[in-house]
Amino acid sequence: MIGVVIVSHGDLARALVDSTSMLVGTPEQLSYTGIYPGDAPEEFYGRLVRCVEEVDTGDGVVVLVDLYGGTPNNNVARLSREKNIRIVTGANLPMAMYVCMERTQETTLREMVDGLIATGTEGISEFDMSAKAE
Fold first, then answer.
1. DSSP calls for 40-69
2. Pair type for strands 85-89 and 61-65
């Protein structure tokens, strides 16, 4: 089964995992890490490597990252040169829930990435209470 790692600035990754666990249960093969003020670059990279290795059983790993082009994303990109990793940016709660509810033994990396992008995009909308019912 595809492994999943959530990576962020600060505690966002932990919060996404905690909230996902509360809503859909504790997922298998899911890890997370964040980068914090004062982290040495190689310290953060080492944590990232451990997270990926912890969930990778040979089917690849999808890494959800909070921000395109940020330090977490750039470090995952660096690691992806050595490991079978797909990176999806803009991590949010619907995406974290999707990966836990929809991932099966048969799910391919391509299917997971496509589903994550669709779920993340569809989860963004305005909740407009100003429209009056007619």
1. -HHHHHHHHHHHHHHH-SSS-EEEEESSTT
2. parallel
**pLDDT per residue as tens digits for the range 25-52:** 988 999 999 999 999 999 999 999 999 9
pLDDT tens track for 75-134: 999 999 999 999 999 999 999 999 999 999 999 999 999 999 999 999 899 888 887 665
**Of 26, 94, 39, 91, nearest in space to 62 by CA:** 91
CATH superfamily of 3-120: Phosphotransferase system, mannose-type IIA component (3.40.50.510)
Bridge pairing between strands 85-89 and 3-9: unpaired
* Assigned token pair, 101: 């509810």
CA 99 – CA 103 distance, rounded (Å):
6
Q: Domain ranges in the chain?
A: 3-120
Report how far residue 77's alpha carbon sits from residue 114's, in angstroms, rounded to the nearest whole number. Answer: 18
Q: Which residue has the tokens 């670059």?
A: 41
